[in-house]
Amino acid sequence: MSGFDLGFLEEFGKAFVPKKIRPRLGAYLAKAGVEEVPYKFFGTLFLVTAVITYFVYLLMIYPSLRTSSALGLFAGTFAGWFSVQITLIVLIILAIYFYLNLMIYQRTKIMEDLLPDYLALVSTNLRGGMSFEKSLWTAIRSDFGILAKEIGIVSKKVATGNDVSDALTEFAMKYNSPVLRRSVDLIKSELTSGGRVAEVLDQLVGVLRRTRELKKEMAATALTYMIFMSVIVLAITPALFALSKQLLTILISIGTKISGSIQPGTTMFAFNAPEIDPADFSNFSIVAVGIIAVFTSVIISIIEKGDIKGGVRYIPLFLIVSILLYIIFEVLLGVAMGGLVVG
Fold first, then answer.
1. Are 310 and 109 in contact (CB under 8 A)?
2. Fold of 110-214
């Protein structure tokens, strides 16, 4: 694609982002590691959804409108095209927003895990006679990854004349992390009072490391419950639903046989086969198993990580495995119990 086309896409994308929103959008994307607002992507997104909308309109909407009057055709085309394209754009943006939230969460957790080791190096530098600002910069290492990059931004702001407390506050407020904010607040208060920052950092490092170990112990303690819930959802629940489907098939077969063999008026009781379609019950079972799997994965995520975002990766795994096992159990039980079905 030529530079002219890329420039067109960028300007086209900017037209859909109001100027008042651009700074907040840039700050939000920076949390996920996106340095610049991808206006070209927004322009491309609009064009792609327009192409998809064209085919949807041509195949699904236009056939029902071609017999309408000119005014009806125009109104239906406008309403249908607008609804389809807006729906596509909203769904794609929601998916991207969900993905970016996960990225921000992962980045925050990584920084929280690396923070004690970084602060330990800062404390060592302070005890070696360095100033606090130089200690921040010297403690940066490549293996600190995201945290090293963020502290590098803080150090550059300090080097260009910004106050170190303001730079640290901006860094802490950038992410929704109580650990980062409390740590920065404690460091700032000690810098303001002129106290022994190195000793405070040592105590803070000890607390953060103990907290990290405690979280790991809690996750290990809950491992038994997580395994128990996983077995129930992934194996037992699909097996029970598959067994219920086979029992329903057998009851329908028996009921049909009995009702067909009884002559009208020979008994005071009426024998009718169950009016439940096994195919409908199978569809219901798949939906039920899927819902149970999703909510169970959310519960396991909360038990292990303390929130839902930390275990979102469990949702597709539980969903696919549970439904797949239901289908397998349904086939196996159908073969094993096929002889019980009355012909």
1. yes
2. Receptor-associated Protein (1.20.81)
